[in-house]
Structure formats: C-alpha cells, structure tokens
Amino acid sequence: IYVWILYLLSLTERAIARHEVREIEQRHTVDGPRQDVTLDEDDDVVIIYNRVPKTASTSFTNIAYDLCAKNKYHVLHINTTKNNPVMSLQDQVRFVKNVTSWKEMKPGFYHGHVSYLDFAKFGVKKKPIYINVIRDPIERLVSYYYFLRFGDDYRPGLRRRKQGDKK
C-alpha cells in the first residue's frame, strides 16, 4: 500500500507540474505560441540561472521577468520536488530532454534552486549557459539570519519551517 501511495503521489506531482508549466508558458509567452519549428542560432539559447539562496536571486530573477517581453525571451521557473536541488538520474534525463527540445520556450531564461547538470554527459551538442550570482559568505549568513527572523516582503505571510522563535 505504501508503494502504491508513493506512486499515486508521483503521478499527482507530475500532473501538477505539467499544469504549472502550461500556466507559466501562457503567462510568459510574448506573442502567443511560436509556430516555427526551426530556430536560428540566436533563438536556440537557454540560460539556466541555478540560484543560490540569499544572493539577491529574487531581485535578479525579477529583472529577467521585467525584461522578457521587451527582449523577446521566455522566463521559466524550475521547480524541483520538495525544493531538493539534486535530481534523480531519471529526472536529469527528462530535464535535459525538456530543455533541449522545448522550442516554444527558446530563447529562454530558466531559474531555480537546482544543481549544475553536465548536459554533455547526455550527448547534447548545444548546451545551455549556466550563470550564477555569488555573495560574501558572511554577508550571506547575516542576510539568512534576518530572513529567518523577520521574513521578507516577497511572500510576507509565508511561515517557514526553520523560522523558529523570532526573539
């Protein structure tokens, strides 16, 4: 029964993920779905911003959303299961396939708390470009402390697991 429940949860998570992807695509597609199937060199670009917490990643991502319509690219949030940045091998294969073959979302800026994935290991010739923002470790720790203690303005009502006593 336990395995069956896990299987049903997995199916539910995948259905929710597909629904979220459709919603995001509808929100962030500039001129509606693209009909072309071949992309030129400039349009066949994917940038993956594998966000490091407390390094101004929300601010940086908001800039990407603000500029996507004007500059004709798509922004997509990569949401991993339970915010675990490490993907299983099966999920890695699916992710590589999706990133490389999803022409309607190119050029694209994908962001999320995900680990680096070497696309070359999967035989991909046109690999995505990875970018990141780093921060002084002490400043990052101080930012994390205040984040846990006082929250943020982005989702003020969210109660975080590690928040603890605000005193």
Automatic annotation (TrEMBL):
GO terms for cellular component: Golgi membrane. It is found in: Golgi apparatus membrane. Residues 1-17 form the signal peptide. Keywords: Disulfide bond, Glycoprotein, Golgi apparatus, Membrane, Signal, Signal-anchor, Transferase, Transmembrane, Transmembrane helix. Pfam families: Sulfotransfer_2. Its main location: Golgi. InterPro entries: Heparan_SO4_2-O-STrfase (IPR007734), P-loop_NTPase (IPR027417), Sulfotransferase (IPR005331). It is a single-pass type II membrane protein. GO terms for molecular function: heparan sulfate 2-sulfotransferase activity. Belongs to the sulfotransferase 3 family. This is Heparan sulfate 2-O-sulfotransferase 1. It comes from Balaeniceps rex (Shoebill). The gene is Hs2st1.
